[in-house]
Model the fold of this input.
Amino acid sequence: MTKEDIQKINDLREKMARTYRLATTEEQKKRLGKYIKDLDIIIGDIKAGRPVDPIKLRILDDSPSQSSSKKYAEDDEPTFSDVIEVETVIASGHDYDFDQVYSFLTFFENNLSPALSASYLKLDFALAKKRDECLMSYESVKRIVDQYVSDFNQYYSSNNDNTAMRERLRTDRRSVLVKLNDTFISIRKFFAFLVNDLNDGRNSILNKDSIFRDKFSETHNYFNGKTYEEIVRLAYDFVNEMIDVIDIPRF
Done:
């Protein structure tokens, strides 16, 4: 088996795990869970230096008889974009891309930020400090975003065709998105470290198996009922998708 084959299997395992975490029905979870278990057996055999049963490798085939769970993941892989409803915040109503970015920020603030706070997620001292820095950097850049939205909407409602102001807002828009992108890239490094620790069996998350319940929003927080390990892994997925949504070259 080549290094490329092994990498393909590991990448597929990671993709299946992400899909499982976002699955919304028990049927999907059961189907994906079985597929992940089969992949784990293959990965275990490879790590132990055992020959891999060719029959097990059939789940990697791209033939029409491939696993239905794989087909589900490739065709209908759920994303946070499927969960997050885009709200219109830019008054002109013609900036869907920025509206989507802002909606992702709102989701982060209302759902992830509480779950990751010191009141709930318990980390060792060094990581707790880094977590607090990440949340503070988010709050700082969110204020900048809110100021841009306020300035734009005030300009739009004034019906004042001020060329200089319009150009300034265009420049501000890109500057805000660049700062937002940089902030979430930094946050992604933090979550990547936590996920790697989880994968390596380290105990950086002191309450990883505990169930999260937002005491201020028991019915509305998306992550209610999930373990802190699940939340951290989903947070990493979210941040990656957030960076894709910001998509600086597009702007």
In short: Helices lie at 3-22, 26-48, 68-76, 80-83, 96-116, 125-158, 163-199, 228-246. DSSP finds eight helices and no strands in the chain.
